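Structure tokens please, single chain.
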Amino acid sequence: MKRIDVLYQIKTLENLIFRNFILDKPSLKTIPTPTQVQIMEYILTHQNEEIYQRDLESILNLRRATVSGVLQTMEKHELIERVTSNEDARAKKIILNSQAKEMFLAHRKKILAFEQILLQDLTEEELEVFCKVLNKMQGNVLKYTAQKK
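Here you go.
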């Protein structure tokens, strides 16, 4: 069986996808990063809940420093606000402003359209196998990470 460089293939696909999102943009400042989009999506889909940085760390499986940096950038670009919680004065809940909601919705449409391009010519079975393989790979990495600790 021919050797397949899985990491190389994944990175190449990621680069191709990202390039398609920045080609038609005049400024990188207006493009939310994939992590920012994930954060915006999570906050929008959980609008009735108070969301804190620790929630995002856990749900997105990211380190505290990573989430902190992304939130600082989003705050700097006035996409989010951190507001003191009513329940715990030490905690700051994260709130999206209307600009971030509009940005997310505009990018979400592009993401869904581009996803259709990615899925073009794939059968349901191929997509199911692909998702199953991705989930197994994620599980392998999580298991490996847990064993290292």
